[in-house]
User: Which sequence fits this backbone?
């Protein structure tokens, strides 16, 4: 329980897309709601549309998608 709370807090504080201030929690929520590709995550969240054009955040989004596809459980985001 406490570990899940800590993960949720870290997810909200960790910026996946620094350019657009998109948190890991937002990306996880998009994936949890059915986004299955980088393009879908970017469309839903706005990540990857900042000044670096996704060079910094795209690998992180891909890694999270890979974890999700490999059925690593994602903590629920409220
Ligand atoms: S970090 Fe996502 S667009 Fe730059």
Assistant:
């Amino acid at each position: 329980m406490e570990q899940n709370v800590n993960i949720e807090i870290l997810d909200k504080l960790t910026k996946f897309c620094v350019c657009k201030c998109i948190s890991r929690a937002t990306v996880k929520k998009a994936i949890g709601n059915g986004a299955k590709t980088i393009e879908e995550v970017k469309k839903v969240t706005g990540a990857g549309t900042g000044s670096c054009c996704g060079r910094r955040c795209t690998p992180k989004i891909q890694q999270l998608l890979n974890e999700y596809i490999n059925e690593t459980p994602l903590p629920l985001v409220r």
